[in-house]
Amino acid sequence: MTIRAHAATQPGNSLVPFEFDPGPLGRGEVEVQVETCGICHSDLSMLQNDWGQTTYPLVPGHEAIGTIVAADEHALGVRVGQRVGVGWFSGTCQVCPECVSGRQNLCANAAQTIVGRYGGFADRVRCHWTWAIPLPEALPAATAGPLFCGGITVFGPMVECGVRPTDRVGVIGMGGLGHLAVQFLAKWGCEVTVFSSHPEKEEEALQLGAHHVVNSRDPGAVKALAGSLHFILSTVNVPLDWSAYLAALTPGGRLHLVGAVLEPLAVPAFALIGAAKSVSGSPLGSPATVATMLEFSARHGIAPVTETFPMSQVNEAIAHLEAGKARYRIVLENDFA
Q1: How far apart are CA 295 and CA 157, in angstroms?
Q2: SS in 3 state form for the chain?
Q3: Is the domain of 165 the same as that of 262?
Q4: 167 and 241: one domain?
Q5: What is the value of pTM for the model shown?
């Protein structure tokens, strides 16, 4: 059989129609008929080979929603006809200490959906069944895709870092990740402060659940929060005055990064030592945490704010995202004939 897709043949190129024969299903693999697939900034980074791990032709797409249409006999936990989502990971070794302890997202040998594999900007995509996470009926396929990358990226730290409903938390950035973090943390029970360089987003941040919005370009406004926040989640990929945000933490507070800042962080040791503060980061979440995030989203009506494009207009959609015009996640709808 042939899978139809959109692929880039080298850095900087537009995506073009691309077909490939995927061969037989691997052990435990499933094949998913794609309904929708989100576009993430990680897709842009992979298209430009910013991280030095892209192979071409590249079929991006790691926020795919669809129906399982084929399954290897060892795909024990899902069934043909089931609607699922496929995120950044498409398989793990299942035997390392991280995998057997339920932290498969930390597997050193994890297969990544668009690293050395063909992703979801296609009519079908494949993964190991453990990473084909069933979609609750309450979550529509049209908007659920971004939860499988953007959603779990910000939800995972809430679980792993022990964020409590009584905590005062900060979210740096009100974009594709930040607008989801605000919703999750507010429904979690936290008092949420958003740091944004875009004053025009204040009203929407408050509507999504934020209690306070601070202009991140105003050093005095950030300084005024000294010692008040238990947890700060940074969703941006640009360097900031990290010392100012560390100062905003309570003793024992944590600054956690999920935005891929390429420059090394300038963090003074005494900013951490004196009040036992910490800086950390995390990659997405395990299948169990993804499933919990989906249940939490369905229970509380949490959903990405999305714009849609037909998959045939993928280059226009990418240009829209690169121009910073997306509000807040873009979803492609499969329109292969």
Answers
A1: 16
A2: CCEEEEEECCCCCCCEEEEECCCCCCCCEEEEEEEEEEECHHHHHHHCCCCCCCCCCECCCCCEEEEEEEECCCCCCCCCCCEEEECCEEECCCCCHHHHCCCHHHCCCCEECCCCCCCCCECEEEEEHHHEEECCCCCCHHHHHHHHCHHHHHHHHHHHCCCCCCCEEEEECCCCCHHHHHHHHHHHCCEEEEEECCHHHHHHHHHCCCCEEEECCCHHHHHCCCCCEEEEEECCCCCCCHHHHHHCEEEEEEEEECCCCCCCCCCCHHHHHCCCCEEEECCCCCHHHHHHHHHHHHHHCCCCCEEEEEHHHHHHHHHHHHCCCCCCEEEEECCCC
A3: yes
A4: yes
A5: 0.96
For residue 196, give its domain range: 152-281
For 90, 158, 291, 295, the CA distances from 127, given in Å and listed in that order, are 4, 26, 16, 22
Within 13 Å of residue 138, how many CA atoms lie on the same side as its CB? Answer: 10
Pairing of strands 29-39, 64-71: antiparallel
Q: Identify whether the C-beta of residue 208 lies closer than 8 Å to the C-beta of residue 179.
A: yes
Q: What is the pLDDT of residues 259-291, one digit of tens each?
A: 999 899 989 999 999 999 999 999 999 999 999
- The answer on 182 and 139 residing in a single domain is no
CB 332 within 8 A of CB 39: yes
Unique residue bearing structure tokens 């996470």 = 133
Identify the CATH number of the domain in which residue 191 sits.
Answer: 3.40.50.720
How does pLDDT run across 165-175, given as a tens digit for each residue? 999 999 999 99
> Residues 199, 206: contact at Cβ < 8 Å?
no
- Judge whether residue 1 has pLDDT over 90: no
Q: Taking Cα atoms as reference points, which of 25, 22, 153 lies closest to residue 88?
A: 153
